[in-house]
């Protein structure tokens, strides 16, 4: 059967985009990622059409964060939380962002809010555990990180942070055990 020319054009342009993605990193200037910019543009248009969709605000915040626009990312996360105050993923993402900016009290508040909304959210547990270990509340942090590894033993960064925390509290045996376990699963892990 004859394929209409509009369909052929669509197939050809779709193939071109796929080929461009395969042969290009999407980066030109330092830190400029074409695909991230395109995702931001697309999600921004969608949020304009659906401004009350909290999930879209979380999605665009991730794109803005990857595009190194943390203020815009934070703005959209706060909008999502205004719409859905118990949105665990939005709380966790905001906590990670605040943690990276060393805004620790806000980060802790949002990690805890994420865990209040979803007590099994491993990302929030790992973040809170790491934050607590870094603010001299190592006992609480160790408990959080141990819980992370109970739920998901493949969390290498949590295991590394737990090893460091055990070292800092003087439990060298547990610190070494966790490092050995980590290196058995992930040889050459950075920092080991």
Distance between the termini: 62 Å
The poorly predicted ranges are 1-29
Kindly provide the radius of gyration, computed on alpha-carbon positions and rounded to a whole number of angstroms: 21 Å
- Content of β-strand: under 5%
Percent range of helical residues: over 70%
Would you give an account of this structure?
It is a single chain. About 75% of the residues lie in helices and about 0% in strands. The protein has 10 helices and no strands. It has helices at about 5-25, 35-50, 55-65, 70-85, 90-100, 105-115, 120-135, 140-150, 155-170, 170-185. The chain starts with a helix and ends in a 7-residue tail after the last helix. The model is unreliable at about 1-30 (pLDDT under 50).
Key terms:
192 residues, mainly alpha, 0% strand, disordered N terminus
Task: Provide a brief overview of the structure.
With about 190 residues, the protein is an all-alpha fold. About 75% of the residues lie in helices and about 0% in strands.
Task: Write the topology of this structure.
Layout: H1 5-23, H2 34-49, H3 54-66, H4 70-83, H5 88-100, H6 104-117, H7 122-134, H8 138-151, H9 156-168, H10 172-185
Helix pairs in contact: 2-3, 3-4, 4-5, 5-6, 5-7, 6-7, 7-8, 7-9, 8-9, 9-10
